[in-house]
Automatic annotation (TrEMBL):
Keywords of this entry: DNA condensation, DNA-binding
Gene Ontology biological-process entries: chromosome condensation; DNA replication initiation; gene expression
A family per Pfam: Bac_DNA_binding
InterPro entries hit by this protein: Hist_DNA-bd (IPR000119), Histone-like_DNA-bd_CS (IPR020816), IHF-like_DNA-bd_dom_sf (IPR010992)
Protein name: DNA-binding protein HU-beta
Family as reported in the entry's similarity comment: Belongs to the bacterial histone-like protein family.
GO cellular component: cytosol; DnaA-HU complex; HU-DNA complex
């Protein structure tokens, strides 16, 4: 599902216009992004948690040449699904 399909699905389920649904999706993405930039976390009970994790510098290989390259340290966003989401995906009922 891409952004346009998500907007359509939200519009159908909520009765909002596509324009309002797109504003809501954009606002959600912006809010999560701003929070993660500040190294905060966004926890949606039952759905999951968006947070950041530090990745240490490491050595890697260029897949085309096989040469060793240094990959710098970085802060990466990550998502940890909640129990309710995991259960729904695995077909378990409440």
């Amino acid at each position: 599902m891409n952004k346009a399909e998500l907007v359509d699905a939200i519009a159908k389920q909520t009765g909002l216009s596509k324009k309002d649904s797109e504003k809501a999706v954009t606002a959600f993405v912006d809010a999560v992004t701003k929070t993660l930039k500040k190294k905060g976390k966004v926890q949606l009970v039952g759905f999951g948690t968006f947070e950041t994790a530090k990745r240490a510098a490491r050595n890697g290989k260029n897949p085309q040449t096989g040469a060793t390259i240094k990959i710098p340290a970085a802060i990466a966003p990550k998502f940890k699904p909640g129990k309710a989401l995991k259960d729904a995906v695995n077909g378990k009922k409440k």
